[in-house]
DNA sequence: ATGAAAGCGCTAACAG
DNA sequence: CTGTTAGCGCTTTCAT
């Protein structure tokens, strides 16, 4: 009577099984699956055949244990309601997958410290960590560095600059917006801030204020939207109710501008682009939808993702390399939500941008 | 002269190091980090101290090799431009993280077969796989099953029903929309399809047509938007240019409805909700933005994510359990883009829904 | 309750 | 080019 296989989870074939079937040693099997290894074509063929027959796939877990590299990169993301982040995540994931990495996703609960989840980064021996949006304690960044795990911040930066980062040109973009508004004849600009402690919001505000001052315009009215849709709507409401109503609203990101757009049109009957100008920052997907049609400073998503990968590779190759802070230039994309100035409007790659 | 540590990536502390420092055996250290294990409180304390001193963290890779469980679940997602998916991804990730799993993200390139990436699923010995949006060859699903890896499809279903799935009530929701339009006095409804071979689009169309027929209304005009923004805009343009202009547009998902909204208002000067009714499916984030204000059938994102987890747990506990196809009921959320019928409009949890 | 010993499936010297 | 031999860091019997 034939002995039947035990039921339940059939154990996957191992390199040993393949070796036995192919009549070679187990190390030969290993070599057959290692790109650069020296192996006779004939042996490789025999192994390939046996492997195919058994449905063998090298166990990456076992490989990682030895090589101490998992080919997995942690990506901490949150705030996915803001359509900028899914786009960034997709670009980043594509870039990393293209380079042979897998992405382990951490969606930090807003408010929660990201540290507990990030403990896992160390436990799983991830090759590197990309922090998009979530905050990171400097203690943890240090610990990662000690463990030899490169960290790159995306669209975020620490005070000390000790951790590598990739950001858009927050300061320059905001300054450009100030000049754009001035050129368009706006005289009472206002600003809706994001989170007070976020580098993006602070840098954008600083760039805006400084440029405004340099142009001889008054400092902007200001309200805080905490990068939250409902709170941004409240902020817009507050600003548009001011005795001297602002003639322009610069929102620290598109997500808040989407809220402001609705408030202006539906609650104040102000047509964006005609009676009030509303400008965002990011060029998140919906900004280009005709129903939304938001003028905004576009962050270059693909190049930013590519830059993250290159910095990561750089750190992986040389663990002692110093941190780099990459600032990627973007463009002011002109749509219907802000009045155009008489000069500097040019078409570029099928879209209107402002080049003073 | 004191011997200094070798430079470069300092090797992380192992259970052996901790054991040596604590003066216990390596297995004692293992037990100290295993929740249910029998260990003397005193020993546990000594181990904890030594571990803290060395910054020791159990290597999950090594553990996985033995336990054959990685606590990692693969999630294949794509089409993140459609804001429904980031929301789903976030909910799913939160649910899985809450249950102690990590999420390995696969962003299948559109068009590409998902199989090559999914090979990785097998190599990494993932515990399970959730397919949101990406297509999955039945060959691969079979292979996963043979390898004992549970697969759950999210917002997608196979013909044969051999793979577990969680979907919204596509047929029922679409039928409800048909009845809603009829009740609102619409007489010439049209339909914008998504991808012709997607179960979501097919089921929504079938539900819509059948209900329309039952109501004695003519079959809807039809155009295909392929779940793509630009193509959906084209489809809307085509339908709204028809000699007998439709008085309602049901789009197979919100993302396409966002495009239709823009076309109606900007290109045809038709105010959605007054001159033409536009309805979507999903209740993706922007649908509720006042600038957008889309009437749509809401899929219950959180419950769907929770259901995926429960089905996964079920399959993990019993690998031989049969596939289940969960259909989660949603609600028709009323906003400004579609004319309201005189009856059945009720307020529920702060929003307007239709309960005929 | 604890330690010794045997692997998990694989890679990486090392001889041949 | 190939097989043999050690482990990677951990969990898990099995005695004690």
UniProtKB/TrEMBL annotation, chains A, B:
Domain of life: Bacteria
Gene3D superfamilies xref list: 3.40.50.2300, lambda repressor-like DNA-binding domains
SUPFAM superfamilies for the chain: lambda repressor-like DNA-binding domains, Periplasmic binding protein-like I
MF (Gene Ontology): DNA binding
The UniProt record lists the keyword Transcription regulation: yes
InterPro entries with a match to the protein in the record: HTH_LacI (IPR000843), LacI/GalR-like_sensor (IPR046335), Lambda_DNA-bd_dom_sf (IPR010982), Peripla_BP_I (IPR028082)
Residue ranges constituting the HTH lacI-type domain according to the UniProt record: 13-67
Protein name (Swiss-Prot/TrEMBL): LacI family DNA-binding transcriptional regulator
Organism from which the protein derives: Roseomonas marmotae
């Amino acid at each position: 009577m034939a002995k039947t296989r035990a039921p339940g989870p059939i154990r996957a074939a191992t390199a040993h099984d393949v070796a036995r079937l192919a009549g070679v040693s187990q190390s030969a099997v290993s070599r057959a699956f290692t790109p650069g290894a020296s192996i006779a074509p004939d042996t490789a063929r025999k192994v390939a055949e046996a492997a195919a027959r058994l449905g063998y796939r090298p166990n990456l877990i076992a490989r990682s244990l030895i090589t101490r590299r998992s080919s997995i990169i942690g990506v901490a993301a949150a705030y996915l309601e803001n359509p900028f982040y899914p786009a960034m995540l997709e670009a980043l994931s594509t870039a990393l997958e293209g380079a042979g990495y897998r992405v382990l996703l951490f969606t930090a609960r807003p408010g929660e410290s990201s540290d507990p989840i990030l403990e896992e980064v160390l436990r799983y021996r991830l090759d590197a960590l990309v922090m998009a949006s979530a905050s990171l304690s400097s203690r943890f960044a240090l610990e990662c560095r000690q463990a030899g795990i490169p960290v790159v911040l995306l669209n975020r930066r620490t005070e000390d600059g000790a951790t590598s980062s990739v950001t858009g040109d927050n300061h320059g973009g905001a300054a450009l917006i100030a000049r754009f508004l001035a050129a368009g004849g706006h005289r009472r600009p206002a600003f809706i801030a994001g989170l007070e402690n976020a580098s993006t919001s602070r840098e954008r505000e600083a760039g805006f204020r400084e440029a405004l001052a340099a142009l001889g315009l008054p400092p902007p009215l200001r309200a805080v939207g905490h990068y939250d849709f409902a709170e941004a709507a409240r902020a817009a409401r507050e600003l548009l109710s001011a005795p001297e109503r602002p003639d322009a609203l610069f929102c620290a990101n598109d997500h808040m501008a989407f809220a402001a757009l609705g408030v202006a049109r539906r609650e104040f009957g102000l047509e964006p682009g005609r009676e009030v100008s509303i400008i965002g920052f990011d060029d998140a997907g919906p900004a280009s939808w005709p129903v939304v049609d938001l003028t905004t400073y576009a962050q270059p998503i693909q190049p930013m993702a590519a830059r993250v990968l290159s910095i990561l590779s750089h750190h992986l190759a040389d663990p002692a390399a110093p941190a780099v802070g990459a600032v990627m230039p973007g463009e002011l994309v002109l749509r219907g939500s802000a009045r155009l100035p008489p000069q500097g409007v040019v078409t570029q790659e099928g879209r209107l941008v402002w080049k003073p």
